[in-house]
Design brief:
The structure holds two protein chains of two kinds. By secondary structure, chain A is α/β, with parallel strands linked by helices. Chain A is built from 25 helices and ten strands. In chain A, the strands form two sheets. Chain A has an eight-stranded mixed sheet, sandwiched between helices. The interface between A and B is large, with 57 and 55 residues. Chain A: Pfam families: EDS1_EP, Lipase_3.
Chain lengths: 599, 500
Amino acid sequence: MMGGRLGDSIGVREEVIQKACKLSMKAHEKSPGKPYVHEKNRGPTEAFFAFPGSWAVEDWYSRRPFGEIKVDVSKFPSMKSVGNDEIALVNEAFSRRFEELLSRSSLATEVEKAMSDRKQIVFAGHSSGGPMAILASIWFFEKYIRFNHYQIPPFCLTFGSPLAGNHIFSHALRRENWARYFIHFVMRRDVVPRIMLAPLSNVEQGLQFILEFLNPKSPHYLQYEPTVASNFLLSVMRNALSVASRAACYLKGCTNLLLETVASIVELSPYRPFGIFVFCTGNGKLVVLENPDAVLQLLFFCLQLSPEEENSEFVHGMFKQHLAYESELQESLTMQDVTYLINLVDVPLSADARTNDAAALNDLGLTTRARLCLRAAGELEKQKLENQKKIDSNKDTIKEALKKIQEYKMSCEIRKVGYYDAFKIQKENADFNGNVKRQELTGILDEIVEMIKRYELPDGFEGRKEWIELGTLFRRLVEPLDIANYYRHLMNESTGPYMVKARPKRYRFTQRWLEHAERKPVGFSSETTFWAEVEELRVKPYAQVKDKVLRLEEQVLAWVREGLLGKDVFLDESTFNKWWRTLPFDHRSGSCLAGFISK
Amino acid sequence: MQIFEILNTSKSVVLAGHSLGGGVASLSALWLLSHIQTTAPSTSVFCITYGSPMLGNEPFSQAILQERWGGNFCHIVAQHDIVPRLPLAPSSPLDVDRLRALFVQLALQLSDENKAELFDKVLACMEARFGPAAGDDHQERGWYWPFGSYMICTDKGAVCLDNGTAIIKLLYLMLAEASANSCMDDHLKYEDYVTKVCLQYLQKRRLLEVSVSESSSESGIALALQSSRISSHQEPVYGTAVNCLATARQLGWRRNLNTAKMAVSLSKINPFRAEIEWYKTYCDRSEAQLGYYDSFKRRGASKRDFKVNMNRLRLGCFWDDLIDKLEKNQLAHDFHKMSKYVNASQFYKLLVEPLEIAEYYRTGMHREKGHYVEHGREKRFKIFDRWWGNRKVGDEESKPRSKYASLTQDSCFWAKVEEARDLIFNVTRKPDPGRRLLLLDKIQRFEQYANGMIERKEVAVDVLAKNSSYNLFREEWRCLKSQLQLLPSQFPDFQDGMVQ
């Protein structure tokens, strides 16, 4: 649990943070040919890679309004939700810059060199160098850590970085247990981390000016223009407010239907925070939090100005905060006045409260409204854990019912019929009891799937081994029965093939769980839909489906050898066997399955 | 015409209007929503009105909710504006003149006296209905009632509500704080209000005058009321407002909760349904060859029969409870459109209604009340017919069936069989020739219908069981026809139609 010194609780030593910050600032000064700064410590521990920012508007927004694209899943296969199969969105401009960096520079080689020296790798970046560090870290996780090629997870340290990805980033990184290696430092009043909440059309003009203002190499460095700056600030704040209050409505369970309509008309920024955020209050204190919903709220509320702050001088100061990370961190890392906002549900609402968190919240200047939003974020997190607890309590019921179905399957084999066919005929009492168990189980699983669809379970749920195993067992035992039921009622005639039109999410999801966890390609574990294949093939003329039949036979052979498919499929009276025997003689004699089927 | 062009090129349409223009905007939006439902369902329509008078009554608002259009309307009302509240008071010709003066922006020329009279009248009407002395039942039919969401703006912020009762109460409470002048002036100050509201949320403000409670829900409501300018010093107004916001919020939550619970109950009753399915298979295979319908109709006292009957009743209770909740507005507004329930109810209807019919004729209810389809059908089945009929039909191809359906696709098939048998019985009682012809015509029509069903394989195998009521009908009908053919002179017309 978090507490005490910052370095101890996040797992990065204070010197490393300071060093990373220093290198990140230094990276901006480097010649444009050098896409990153690499510093090897002589000592045995860290290797730093710090990335410079870019000060051109097109390196921030590739197009209107927000310039997001789907991540390249071939490079970042984990950056999605597993069951829902929703692919993460990333800022295109950042992603393109990173692609170039990776393909044109020696980053990959130098990283591998550092790995061979058993170094702790640290990716760092200030401003738009931050997203480079983020993408480099994810790339590293996907390429080395996920496949166990390297055991020391990298750290990603960003300073005043703009947001780079949508909510799936947070979801996926938490599921993979990588989120805690991403540590973002944000000055309370730094506008840059909020910019991506606004669409390009609202900020285009101001952004150009601000980037010049911040770029140490620009002739307009630190040249300030009060009206442009305050208009820019107002735009960013307005959009941050829209995003934050829309999110707050969701957190608070607001049921007003207006939200949906407005969402379909007003396009809001997709970008969301992820990882650990360390807010610097500006007076040497640090506030640390991990809940991405709460961070989003803080990104807006910390920006709120009180009436006495609404003057040009103050706003000027806000823009300069973006360049003050080094000195600010030096001070606060020495002071070590750190507050960890862990128990969001109980943050005090009143500014007069005297609890631990109270001072930190006051330093961030949070109003009651802001505190209510933090609580709501905490409540949602708590609710997700409670949902998980409830789901977990069903595990034994599921196991018990699966055992019954296993027994049913065995009893069928004794009767010399496969349970698929027995179930399809529905003649014996046992078939009926099997059907009742099937319905019980599908009810429980469907509830879980519903929750996953709405992201109502903790992000880690789809990565939990026990559920992946249980889901797989469930899928292997019960999906054949669902298929039997489907074709028994001839639903293929009214609705279409099972695989195309009717395969329930409970099987699609559980299959994806397994395939993701075992890092297998999509469709790898489709042995459970074997019967649906057979049912579709057997009503078609052989000539038309010859290739498919051949492929299916090869798969069957593999599945039977691995024990994924029972030998009951070859029994004399099975749908498969009966169909197979109708295939042309030439085919049968040459088939790889010929040995399994009695003549 | 212009709007059709817009529909072709735009993803969303926003309609807006001030005052009476708001009414026009709302009606246009409603028209547009009904229109695009079939032509361009992905276009979104959003209607914003400013100080628009209320438009319809409670059923009007209910209908909009059921179509899931509630979220397409946002009515912005300035705190004291009298116009939105006007329809709540009965109007007189005099008021019409006053309004005209107001609408042509001549508010200043309206004498103070006239303003005061109008204000007093509206306030008195609202007080009579929503004031402390009024009862709790505000939803008398016929009265104007809010629909969509209301955003009530003050100089301190805004509150947004979608619960009719809460909206109307707050409108009343805030009018009570107004004056004859402010209630007219506010109608013309929308630009001002709307600009301010946005800026207000960007600024940091502390809760003044309100002592902050550490309970989230209490302080949430306190914030909302601060925005509505109802301060805690104004008892009992403050207390009433707190209650009404708290109730509105609970209602919204309970609806979601009930909807979620319903899904769980549905999966719990599924095994009962499965047992009935199993029973059907058993009957269809039994040696008595009665089929599902007749087995149940002639059932004995076995445990199996008893159990199936219990399941029939249980399922009936579940669906009745669901409909009851829906009618009391305790479930999601578009519940009857969720495919999960539309499909489940259809399956239930096809499976269980034959049993209901069997029970009806077994107990001789048709002799007391008349035939099932007209007089004995439970309300739930008619509702499910409607759901199924209104569902969105996808692109599924409908190939001809290769086997008999697992369940007869017309759940009232058996009731029609019973009716036809009754008709045959009536014919044999030799009524007068005119009536007789009518009866025969009806029987013939049933026969055509049944043949069609069988040809298209839309019936389940139980219909064709050797000893089923349907086969009894065919037997009786054959006898009758051969009798009739013995007396062709009496029915020349009929005979022509009989060629088979």
